[in-house]
Amino acid sequence: MLGVSTAWLVAAGNSFGQEINPSFNAQKISVPLEYQESANAVASRNVSVTLQNAPFAKEPPAVSGKTLRGHLEFNSKATNCISFLWQQSEGRLFLDLNRDGDLTDDPAGAFSSASANHSSYQTFTNVHLGFDTAQGHLSVCADLLFWNYGSRPTCNLSLRSFWQGEINLNGRDYQIGLVPVALNPDKPADGARLLLRPWEKRNEAFNVFDGSLATVPYQNKLFINGQAAELDLQGAAVAGEWKPTVQLEKQVAALGSLKIDGKFIRRMVLSSGAYLVVLDQPADTVPVPTGSYAAPDVLLEQGGVAASCVHSSPRISKAVNVDGITPVILNIGGPLTNSVLASRRGPDLRLDYQLVGAGGMSYKLINQDRTHPPEFAVYKGENKLTSGNFEFG
């Protein structure tokens, strides 16, 4: 397994399992973030749709078949709404990107769906949207998915852009970035995810929901492998564009300790506490700030195969209580065991595949090859009764 111990800005190369020097070389670090586009979706969210019956002042030529028009709403400000005209029967979408009420004068606002015409499910790719913020113009790249099986369409936005920078942790470069999942022009950090992974992995595809833990919930207080820090996102207008900067300032936190029984842990994240705790390849015993945390998210990796256990959000129950007196024992991690949960549904026998780790936690493989699903066989004594494959779901 790859060692990723991260004492803050310390050049000495601490090997995995050795004591980590938590000292800073600087009290405060400022990292400017640059706009970056991805070939794949990094996050997704639904967009509110308000329909209108009356035509806009200027529209593209009318077509036969179904046409819907209205507004895409991203926050409470009317100035950030985007008017649209969807010629569903032709697979065409027109956006009023300059927000002047004219849907014919935006050369970059006309799109064709890759799916067949007349489809109720149409995707429009490489859509560049802009929003006004108090610190300048915020731009994003996205794919828009429209579907309509009745009189009211639904829109889903797949975000394909984020902001990134480079930071040195323990003599190793890391990618740090911001993914504005909620896409709130008033407060870009609200609902955002913090991208934090080794710099050499910066070109690898990621998604905030893929279980890789390449991103973690954005929180103002961060504890990463032995060091507490105040995290502050600041935005400023540079040449009229919103440009974010992440600042990290050293803090001192009261510490307790975790004792981890499991193996193959690449990353563990504890949230819903005073600090967001990120532990990369933790040793058997690790310091963490005192407090109450939700059940941890865990990424396991061995031999190029990765699996994760990510708990749903919002998290309500507190599962890890660190008091600073008695070490908290976590039975978590590998090794993993293939298992089957059998249950009865009427006259049928239901078989559910589970990948179970220490403490009975269930994991999912990352980048699983769905063309080769897990198989099962049922025997009575030595006689094979039936066999088959598990379906994805």
What's the topology here?
Elements: E1 28-32, E2 34-37, E3 43-51, E4 67-73, E5 82-87, E6 92-95, E7 110-112, E8 121-133, E9 136-147, E10 154-159, E11 161-169, E12 172-179, E13 193-198, E14 215-217, E15 221-224, E16 227-238, E17 241-251, E18 255-260, E19 265-270, E20 276-280, E21 285-289, E22 291-293, E23 297-302, E24 305-309, E25 320-322, E26 328-330, E27 337-345, E28 348-356, E29 362-365, E30 375-380, E31 383-389
Parallel strand pairs: 15-20, 18-26
Antiparallel strand pairs: 1-17, 2-11, 3-4, 3-10, 4-5, 5-6, 6-7, 8-9, 9-10, 11-12, 12-13, 13-14, 15-16, 16-17, 18-21, 19-20, 19-23, 22-25, 23-24, 24-29, 27-28, 28-29, 30-31
Instruction: Determine Rg (CA atoms, Å).
Output: 25 Å
| Overall pLDDT confidence | 85
Morphology: flat
Give unreliable regions as ranges: 1-24
Largest sheet: 11 strands, mixed
> How many β-strand runs?
31
End-to-end distance, in Å? 30 Å
**What spatial order of strands do you see in the largest sheet?**
1-17-16-15-20-19-23-24-29-28-27
Strand content: over 45%
Structural class by secondary-structure content: mainly beta
Helix share of residues? Answer: under 10%
Q: Helical element count?
A: 0
